[in-house]
Specification:
By secondary structure, this protein is of the alpha/beta class. Helix content is 50%, strand content 9%.
Length: 632
C-alpha cells in the first residue's frame, strides 16, 4: 500500500514539475511588461503621490499583464510569437514616448496632444539626449526577458493551455475590479482637497503624472485612449445655467487707480517672447529688453505655467482669451477651434475702435492651427512669415519683422493698431548644429568657441536676435513718430525648457523646484510712464483683465478667470499642473508649505477650493462654448 502511495505521489510530483516547466515561459513574459511599468512609476515618484507598492496601480498592471498572458496562451505556434513581439514592441514605444515626453514637458503623453504631432517634430533631434544608462539597462532586461520567454514556448498545444488562458482571464477580471475598488470613494470635485483623491484623479484624468501613478502604464494608456477618442462632451443646459449663476454672483470690480485708462487710445505692440527667460534678460545679453524692463512696469513675480498641449500656444491662448487650454494635456488649437471669445483682448480693442488687429509669427498658418485660432481670438489676419514666402534663415531672425518693409508696414500701420507678435529666434535647438544657433552665431570660428558651453551660449546668442528686434522696433516707432503713442508689452511663453542639462538650468534660474522654474519675464513699457516693479505674484490668466483696465477697454471683470493686477483687492495666485500653488504669502506643494508664512488650514483649504473652482469653470466654458450662448 505504501509502495502504491509512493508511486502516486511520484506521478503527481512529476506532473507538477512538468506543469511548471510547461508554463515557465509565462514568468519572463509577465516580467517583460512589468519592468516597463515599474521603471516609469519609479521615475515618477518625485511627485510624492502613490508609491511603488500602491495597490491601485499594481492591481491595474497585474490585470492587464494577465490579460495579455491569457491571449498569449490561446495563440498557437508562430502566431503566438508574432502576438508577443507586436504587443511588447508597441508598449516599448509607449514607454519611450512617455519617458522622453515627461522629461521634456514634465507631463506624461496623452493622445489629446496627438494633433500636435507635426509641431512635435521640432524636438526629434534632442530625444536621444534623454536616452541614459538606466533606460538602456531597462530595455536590455525587457528584451532579454522577451527572448527567454519565446525560447521556452512549448512546441505542442494542449487542452490545458486553453484552461490556463481562461484562468488568467478570470484573474485579470478580478485584479481589474480590485484596482477599481482600491481607488476609494471620490470627494466633491469642488472640495479643497479633491485633487488629492485617487478616485477623482482617475475619473478626471486631468493630471497626467498623478493619473499615471494611480493607474500604471497599461491602464493609463488604455484609459487615455478611451477618454481622448470617445469622450466628446456636448453642451449641457445645466452647465450653461451653472455658469450663468456663477458669473452673476461674481463680485469683481474696476477699482480706480493711477493706472486705470492710463494707455487709453494708444497703440499696442504685444510681444509673446519665445523662451526668453529671466536669466537671459541681463544688460550684457539683452540690453534693449533690459532697458524696457527697467524703464517700464516690470512684473518680477510673473509665472507662465504649462497646462495644456503646446507650451507656446498654452500661453498664447491664455493671454488672448483670459482662459486656459485644457488642463488634461489636450490642445485647444484643435479641440476648441470653433469656440467664440467675444471678450478676448483683440475683440475688446476692436470694440474700442482699433482698425488694425493682426497676429504675426514665423510659422505657417497650419502650425498649431494658428490661421483658424487667430480668428477665434479675434484677429483680422494671421501673417506667417513662411506663408509669405520669406526663407527660413531670414524668418528665424526676429529682426526680420522690422527689416522687411512689407511686415514692418503691417505691424506699424497708419491706423490705430494692436499688433501681436510671437517671436521665434530663441526657439530650440540650442546646438551649434542647429540652424537657429547658426543664424545667431554666423561665424564658424565663433561657433567653435561657443561649444565650450554650447547650450547656454547658443540660447544667449539666439535671445540676442530677439533683443535686436526690440531695438529696431523702438527705432522704427520713433522714425514713424508714434513712439510716444505706442505701448510695448512683452511676456515670455515659457522658461527655457529646451535646455537639456536640467541641473545647469536650475542653477541659471536660481531655483531647485520644478514649479518655481516657471517664473518668466513680463513687462509693460511706454515712453511716458515712471518705472515700477510689481512684486505681487501673477500669472498669464491676469493679463487680459490687466491690459483691458490700463487701455480703458469696455470689459466685465467677472467674465475672466484672472484679475486685474492693479486692483486694490488683487490677491495674487499661481497654480501649477500638479495643483501646487504660490501666492504672496507662501508656496504650497504636496500637502505642505514648502516656503513662506505659516498659515491656518482654512487659508490652505480656501486656496485649494478656489483653484478647483477655476478649473471647473474653465472646463465648462470650453466644452459648452459658453459665450456663444450669451448676449454680449
Amino acid at each position: 500500500m505504501k509502495f502504491c502511495e509512493k508511486i502516486i505521489t511520484s506521478v503527481k510530483n512529476k506532473k507538477i514539475i512538468e506543469f511548471i516547466k510547461r508554463y515557465l515561459y509565462i514568468i519572463p513574459f509577465g516580467l517583460s511588461f512589468y519592468i516597463l511599468d515599474f521603471f516609469l512609476r519609479y521615475t515618477n515618484l518625485k511627485i510624492n503621490f502613490g508609491g511603488m507598492y500602491s495597490l491601485t496601480a499594481n492591481s491595474f498592471t497585474l490585470a492587464w499583464v494577465t490579460l495579455f498572458a491569457s491571449f498569449y496562451l490561446m495563440f498557437k505556434g508562430r502566431l503566438k510569437k508574432v502576438y508577443y513581439i507586436v504587443t511588447i514592441s508597441f508598449f516599448i514605444f509607449i514607454f519611450l514616448l512617455n519617458y522622453i515626453y515627461s522629461n521634456v514637458f514634465d507631463n506624461f503623453f496623452t493622445l489629446k496632444t496627438i494633433t500636435l504631432v507635426g509641431e512635435g517634430t521640432d524636438y526629434l533631434s534632442i530625444i536621444f539626449d534623454y536616452i541614459n544608462l538606466p533606460i538602456i539597462i531597462t530595455l536590455f532586461i525587457c528584451i532579454l526577458l522577451v527572448y527567454i520567454s519565446i525560447k521556452f514556448i512549448p512546441k505542442d498545444v494542449t487542452k490545458s493551455d486553453q484552461i490556463m488562458a481562461f484562468v488568467f482571464f478570470i484573474l485579470a477580471f478580478v485584479a481589474y475590479g480590485s484596482g477599481r475598488f482600491f481607488l476609494g470613494k471620490p470627494a466633491d470635485k469642488l472640495a479643497w482637497d479633491a485633487w488629492n483623491y485617487k478616485r477623482n484623479i482617475y475619473n478626471d484624468y486631468n493630471q497626467t503624472r498623478k493619473s499615471f501613478q494611480t493607474s500604471g502604464l497599461y491602464e493609463y494608456t488604455v484609459r487615455d485612449f478611451k477618454l481622448s477618442i470617445f469622450n466628446n462632451k456636448k453642451a449641457s443646459a445645466d452647465d450653461i445655467k451653472y455658469l450663468d449663476s456663477y458669473f452673476a454672483t461674481s463680485n469683481k470690480n474696476k477699482t480706480p487707480s493711477k493706472y486705470m485708462n492710463i494707455f487709453e487710445d494708444k497703440n499696442i505692440v504685444f510681444v509673446l517672447m519665445e523662451s526668453i527667460d529671466n536669466w537671459l534678460t541681463t544688460k550684457e545679453n539683452m540690453p534693449t529688453l533690459y532697458k524696457l524692463m527697467n524703464e517700464g512696469i516690470n512684473f518680477t513675480n510673473h509665472y507662465s505655467p504649462i497646462y495644456g498641449g503646446g507650451a507656446t500656444f498654452n500661453t498664447e491662448f491664455m493671454i488672448n482669451t483670459g482662459y486656459m487650454t485644457p488642463f488634461n494635456g489636450g490642445s485647444a488649437a484643435y479641440s476648441f477651434n470653433e469656440n467664440v471669445f467675444p471678450l478676448s483682448l483683440p475683440n475688446l480693442f476692436r470694440k474700442k475702435g482699433y482698425n488694425s488687429i493682426n497676429e504675426f509669427h514665423l510659422n505657417y498658418a497650419t502650425f498649431y492651427n494658428r490661421g483658424q485660432m487667430s480668428k477665434v481670438f479675434g484677429y483680422d489676419n494671421y501673417y506667417g512669415s513662411l506663408d509669405m514666402e520669406y526663407s527660413r534663415p531670414v524668418a528665424i531672425d526676429d529682426s526680420h519683422f522690422m527689416n522687411e518693409k512689407e511686415l514692418r508696414d503691417l505691424i506699424l500701420p497708419d491706423d490705430k493698431f494692436m499688433s501681436f507678435i510671437v517671436t521665434y529666434s530663441a526657439h530650440v535647438f540650442y546646438t551649434t548644429k542647429g540652424l537657429e544657433c547658426q543664424i545667431a552665431i554666423p561665424n564658424e570660428k565663433d561657433r567653435k568657441e561657443a561649444m565650450k558651453d554650447e547650450e547656454v551660449n547658443c540660447v544667449k546668442a539666439q535671445a540676442g536676435l530677439t533683443d535686436n528686434f526690440f531695438k529696431l522696433l523702438l527705432d522704427n516707432l520713433e522714425e514713424k513718430g508714434i513712439l510716444d503713442n505706442t505701448v510695448i508689452v512683452g511676456i515670455s511663453d515659457h522658461y527655457t525648457y529646451g535646455i537639456n542639462d536640467k541641473e545647469r538650468l536650475y542653477d541659471l534660474k536660481g531655483v531647485s523646484d520644478a514649479n518655481l522654474i516657471h517664473k518668466t519675464p513680463f513687462f509693460i513699457w511706454s515712453n511716458d510712464i515712471d518705472h515700477l516693479e510689481v512684486t505681487d505674484v501673477n500669472t498669464n490668466l491676469d493679463i487680459v483683465p490687466t491690459l483691458a483696465y490700463m487701455f480703458g477697454l469696455n470689459y466685465n471683470p467677472n467674465y475672466y478667470l484672472g484679475t486685474n493686477i492693479f486692483d486694490e483687492d488683487y490677491d495674487g495666485l499661481v497654480f501649477f499642473a500638479d495643483y501646487s500653488w504660490i501666492d504672496n504669502k507662501l508656496y504650497y506643494k504636496n500637502n505642505k508649505i514648502e516656503a513662506g508664512e505659516q498659515v491656518n488650514k482654512e487659508y490652505i483649504n480656501e486656496k485649494n477650493k478656489k483653484i478647483n473652482t477655476i478649473l471647473d469653470i474653465n472646463k465648462r466654458i470650453l466644452e459648452t462654448n459658453y459665450f456663444m450662448h450669451i448676449d454680449n
